[in-house]
Amino acid sequence: MSSLVVNTNLSAIDAYNNLNATDSQMSKAIQQLSSGLQIQTAADGPAAYVQSQALQSQANGYQQAISNAQDGVSLVQTASGALNQISSILQTMDQLAVSSANGATNDATSLGANQQEFANLQASIDQIAGTTSYGTTNLLDGSFSNQTLQVGAFDYSSQQITLSIGGASTGALGVATGSASVGTASAAANAIKLVQSAIASVDSIEANVGAIQNELQAIAANLTVGQQNLSAANSQLVDVNMAQAMTTFSTDQILMQTGTAMLSQAQQAPALVEKLI
Predict the structure, then answer these.
(1) Which residues are CB-contacts of 168 (< 8 A; sequence separation ≥ 6)?
(2) pLDDT tens by residue, 167-205
(3) Inter-residue contact 149 to 64 (CB < 8 Å)
(4) At what angle do helices 46-100 and 185-238 cross, to 10 degrees?
(5) Where are the extended beta strands (E) located within the chain?
(6) What CA–CA distance (Å, rounded) separates 227 from 70?
């Protein structure tokens, strides 16, 4: 159709439609450049948005699971440090028992001194076992049993660890005041067996705690790699290519300027009809 008409200016309409499309593209480019995201809502890409939300949820779960595993490491390290102290005390108690068992060279005074120190060491073990805690959770009084550590993003049994730490009080170890003493040579001879058995028990508890610590550290390392990979995958879906978006924005700026100029020219076309009159 000729542009020399007054009622319908197709050139102006075409220019307006092109300018409107350019404005929409430019607004989208500005939105992407200002946010750094190409997928912000489901309208930007329903399938990509759903997939992104699932990846983000899993990545967040991994991040929290890493924190859980690290907290678990701190917990078992707390227990391990206290167990080391108890083991050291038991070694001293073993020395006292062996000393008192040598009845030929000990008199009542030396046996009494050994017994006093032995009793103090027993009290120290009970104090450590009764007060060692992580937060408000006691670790060595025998109550820490079948505790669950969540070390994964999902509610699967394979992503949970059950942790138990044996009691390390003198009662649990069999060297309580009523069971072990070194006040006489015969009592000391019996105490040697009891204390050495207690040392073996503490060693076993420490070995279990150490194995759990190594497992948790390995899990945390693996989760860290997984979390990084999930974040990278999500980035591929939602993060905008800034160079590409900036190129698009620059092109749209030029099209906006030329489109505005052409719309102005098209709107003036019907005025040429006046020259025919």
Answers:
(1) 82, 83, 86, 125, 128, 129, 140, 202, 205
(2) 999 999 999 999 999 999 999 999 999 999 999 999 999
(3) no
(4) 170
(5) 133-134, 137-138, 147-150, 160-163
(6) 15
Of 71-80, 100-109, 127-136, 176-185, the range with the lowest mean pLDDT is 100-109
Query: Looking up tokens 């001879």, which residue turns up?
Result: 189
Beta-strand pair 137-138/147-150: unpaired
CA distances from residue 29 to 23, 109, 246, 251, 260 in whole angstroms, order as listed: 10, 92, 7, 10, 19
In terms of phi and psi (left: phi > 0; alpha: psi -120 to 50; beta: otherwise), the region of 147 is beta
- Which residue type does 66 have? I
| Other beta carbons within 10 Å of 135 | 8
**Stated pTM of the model:** 0.72
* The pairing of beta strand 160-163 with beta strand 137-138: unpaired
CA distances from 38 to 19, 55, 64, 245 (A): 23, 16, 27, 9
Q: DSSP code of 239? A: B
In terms of phi and psi (left: phi > 0; alpha: psi -120 to 50; beta: otherwise), the region of 36 is: left
* Locus of tokens 């879906």: 237
Angle, CA 50 vertex, CA 47 and CA 55 arms, to 5°: 120
Asked if 100 and 185 touch (Cβ cutoff 8 Å), the reply is yes
Secondary-structure breakdown of the chain: helix, strand, coil percentages, each rounded to the nearest 5: 75, 5, 20
d(CA 26, CA 253): 7
Quick count: other Cβ atoms within 10 Å of Cβ 148?
Answer: 10
> pLDDT per residue over 129-156, tens digit each?
999 999 999 999 999 999 999 998 888 8
